[in-house]
DNA sequence: CTAATATGCAACCATTTGGTTGCCTGTCAA
DNA sequence: TTGACAGGCAACCAAATGGTTGCATATTAG
């Protein structure tokens, strides 16, 4: 799970995922377009996404096709974020009250 | 949003959020317990969480109380993760098919 | 074969990150 | 007041990160 969080921490990598979400199966060259950095830099980012299992690849001739794997994202949503969701609507109110002051309901 | 992703990228920081989720309003000293690192290190992590608006604080005497703010997490769930959710159930199947081979429905 | 295309590998570099330590300030208790 | 407790600030350091460049390999087109 840590790999996934780390992989998602970089805006370039999130952009790459977005790009694959819009059009799956892009080659390395296609994924490089629109990024103001070298092909190697993009390759490294993609490698990190692959290690985190967020992207899977297949070689087709001399091209490498990249496919989005959203499962790790779902896992984060289900196993991690879901935990914080219980009092969602009251969350802001509770925070305000906590910052205002009374430590228990005691004072 | 980038601040939040970056803040969540570190396991220590996620652990701190978990800790606050279990018991809100902990002091710095309390949050340090169980972490095998100096108080200063934890302070830095908390500062990053504060910058990302994931933690809010209040001073009470000589203590600093820390409160979880889950709203940025909700935003990520709603604005970012939600985008990938559409074909959730078919996602794994699609990935398999994509990796197997046919590029379009054409071959 | 030759040349162009698509990608891979490795060395290198600056900056950021995550941690340390030492010392200072503010608050509570005796 | 004095000492202990809770926390803040700043300098410093090693390692990870994000990027570069140069060159090598494999595939396709002529």
Please describe what this structure looks like:
The structure is a homodimer of 107-residue chains. By secondary structure, chain A is of the alpha+beta class. Chain A is built from six helices and three strands, in the order H-H-E-H-H-E-E-H-H. Chain A has helices at residues 2-8, 11-22, 28-32, 39-51, 71-80, 91-100; strands at residues 26-27, 55-60, 63-68. A three-stranded antiparallel sheet of chain A has the order 1-3-2. In chain A, strand 2 (55-60) and strand 3 (63-68) form a beta hairpin. In chain A, helix 1 runs antiparallel to helix 4. Chains A and B meet through helix 1, helix 2, strand 2, strand 3 and helix 5 of A and helix 1, helix 2, strand 2, strand 3 and helix 5 of B. Chain A binds a DNA duplex (30 and 30 nucleotides) through helix 4.
Short description:
Two copies of one chain form a homodimer. Chain A has 107 residues and is α+β, with helices and mostly antiparallel strands.
State the secondary-structure class of chain A.
alpha+beta
Largest interface chains and counts: A-B, 38 and 38 residues
Largest sheet of chain A: 3 strands, antiparallel
Estimate the strand proportion of chain A. Answer: 5-15%
Oligomer: homodimer
Mean pLDDT of chain A: 93
What name goes with the CATH superfamily of chain A? Winged helix-like DNA-binding domain superfamily/Winged helix DNA-binding domain
Uncertain stretches of chain A? 103-107
Q: What's the total number of strands of chain A?
A: 3
The backbone outline of chain A, from C-alpha atoms, is elongated
CATH architecture group name of chain A? Orthogonal Bundle
Radius of gyration of chain A: 20 Å
Total individual domains of chain A: 1
The name CATH uses for the topology of chain A is Arc Repressor Mutant, subunit A
